[in-house]
């Protein structure tokens, strides 16, 4: 079964729907079936996105992507520096 990828907007909407269902007295297992996620996913989403607005979740994802890009850039530059240092040691 392929994994589904949900956007931050979809996740927040599902969490809001879950809150409404629970406040109406729906059991946890029924609520999870209605929103279409496992209990592990629900708790992970609630921990990561609980209490966020859609704009905040979008910004969080953008910052995470930017952070990953910058980490790759630093790793590449560190590798280049190490190669140059090794080459300079070999020339002397």
From TrEMBL:
SUPFAM superfamilies cross-referenced by the UniProt entry: Homeodomain-like
GO biological process entries: DNA transposition
InterPro entries (UniProt xref): Homeodomain-like_sf, Transposase_8, Transposase_8_domain
Keywords from the named record: Coiled coil
GO molecular function: DNA binding; transposase activity
Domain of life: Bacteria
Coiled coil: 53-80
Protein name per the record: Transposase
